[in-house]
Amino acid sequence: MSSSGILIVERHRGWSAYAANTSSAVCHIEVADPAQIASAVLKFAADKRLSTRRVVLAPATLSCFFAVVDSAGVTDRAQLRYALEAVLPIDAEQIVADSPQLDTGKRAASLSAVAIEINRFASLVGALEARGAKVWAIVPLTLLAAEEAIRRKAIQLPSMSVWYRDDESAGQADIVQFDESQSLTVWRTCDAQPASVQRELQQLGASRVESPDVGVIELARAGAASLIAGHTEPSFDLRRDELAVPEPLRRYRGAITALVLAGATFVAVTSGVLAWHARNLRQVAADLVNQQTEVFRQAVPGQRPPAAILGRLRSEHAKLIGISQTGKVTTAPIAAIDVLGVIVASLPPDVPTAIKELRIENGSVIIQLQVSDQADAGRIAAAIQAAGFETQPPATTLGDDNRLTANIVAKQKRTEVTP
Fold first, then answer.
1. CA distance linking residue 195 with residue 54, whole number of Å
2. How far apart are CA 225 and CA 242, in angstroms?
3. How remote is the C-alpha of 89 from its chain's centroid?
4. For strand 26-29 and strand 15-19, is the pairing parallel, antiparallel, or unpaired?
5. Pairing label, strands 26-29, 184-191
6. Sign of CA dihedral 372, 375, 377, 379
7. 352 near 277, Cβ under 8 Å?
8. Among 172, 178, 160, which residue's Cα sits nearest to residue 68?
9. What is the pLDDT of residues 213-250, one digit of tens each?
10. Is there a contact between 277 and 380 (Cβ–Cβ < 8 Å)?
11. Coil/strand/helix, residue 184
12. What per-residue confidence (pLDDT) applies to 419?
């Protein structure tokens, strides 16, 4: 199925469904019942293998209201409705309205506002959604085409342009004007006869008028495709309030999915790094056990190393220093394997590092490791100190390979033993 969506255009009589891409696929729908319109759209999508996950609804000009209202006291779209009610023959409760200036965060003297009647489109939106179609946006046809023309630089700002419908509504012409900031300042409709258009332009005092070479429908289809792909956002989107999307995060589903995948990837990579780190530490511990075995063989030649080498070495050490003398207080030796266990357990699991060298001698520890920055070296030193060691501030050096190496010197606190 094609990933392109569908543009549904309101006509003078009926509706037309277009593929929102370069395809020429079109379906003219002559019925008025919303359920039948929705069914015809889905059949068209199935026949042309088009996606209905994203549909753009484009009301005709005669279904829209436009006005420039005073911004005083208008801070949201609910207040905008009542501002329009004061200048247009409509009830605030019966319309949805939008103004792009409300999203800029800048206070303007006036607001350009567009509105449509809720009852005219609510049933169609509901029928489409009930059949699995996702109405992505509701944008007036002429404004959808005009903003696409601006994006293509087919018309320059500021300018006034005349738009002629290239379908069965060709007897109608729209006159629109955007200022330098692409704010809509004029939107009128009139008879498409040259004399009528010229009369409207004279009333508006137009000094420069443009008529794009590309047709309204072609531009609107391209604009809908760009909107569906997430490349652009419409200035006026009437898919809000009573006509709002039932799933508020629908537009951001792709971004949320990407974020979840990124999080899962981060967890997988972190788990791999921690596993590699643990494997290195196990290797260090095994090397130290081998060194301990070799020390025993040198200290007690001719004897087989016992399973509990540490306990035997402690016993031999006690004999050498005269621990058996009654009443004498001496310092108990600190086993390297015990110190190693404390050091390994104290390393912060969320700080990536690689141990290059580890030396332990009677409670004194010298660790040389690679870190990301000095802050990580400080965190590791603080963690070792919290585990019962006296530590010196870590010294860091930058190697020829641009990797940071930290040297940490620590001393485990000793205990006194009375025999």
1. 40
2. 25
3. 42
4. antiparallel
5. unpaired
6. negative
7. yes
8. 178
9. 888 999 999 999 999 888 899 999 999 989 987 655 45
10. no
11. strand
12. 45
How many angstroms separate the CA atoms of 124 and 120, rounded? Answer: 8
Spacing of C-alpha 225 from chain mean position? 21
Position 65 confidence tier, pLDDT thresholds 50, 70, 90 = very high
Of the candidates 405, 413, 361, the one whose C-alpha atom is nearest the C-alpha of residue 386 is 413
Q: At what angle do helices 141-151 and 216-228 cross, to 10 degrees?
A: 80
Q: How far apart are CA 153 and CA 148, in angstroms?
A: 8
> And the tokens for 370?
């690679």
Q: Which of 14-23, 89-98, 130-139, 180-189 has the weakest average pLDDT? A: 14-23
**64 neighbors 140 (Cβ within 8 angstroms):** yes
> What angle do the packed helices 336-346 and 374-386 form, to 10 degrees?
130
pLDDT at 363: 83
CA pair distance 46, 50, nearest whole angstrom: 6
For residue 268, pLDDT beyond 90: no
Question: What is the per-residue pLDDT across 99-121, written as a single tens digit (0 to 9) for each?
Answer: 998 887 677 789 999 999 999 99
Dist. CA 10–CA 58, nearest whole Å: 6
Structural tokens at position 19 = 């593929």
Q: Evaluate whether 367 touches 407 at the Cβ level (below 8 Å).
A: yes
Residue ranges with strand state E in 59-109: 64-70, 95-98
Burial class (CB in 10 A: 0-12, 13-18, 19+), 309: middle
* Length in residues, the chain: 419
Sign of the Cα pseudo-torsion (177, 183, 184, 185, in order): negative
Q: Which of 146, 183, 176, 180 is closest to 161 using CA atoms?
A: 176
Instruction: State the number of CA atoms in the 13 A half-sphere of 282 facing the CB.
Output: 6
Cis check for the bond before 301: say yes or no (omega within 30 of 0). no
Grouping H, G, I as helix, E, B as strand and the rest as coil, residue 43 is helix
Residue reference for tokens 């485990």: 412
- Given the structure tokens 């509504």, which residue do they identify? 169
Better pLDDT: 158 or 33: 33
Query: Distance (Å, rounded) from C-alpha 5 to C-alpha 20?
Result: 5
Cα separation, 401 vs 96, whole angstroms: 62
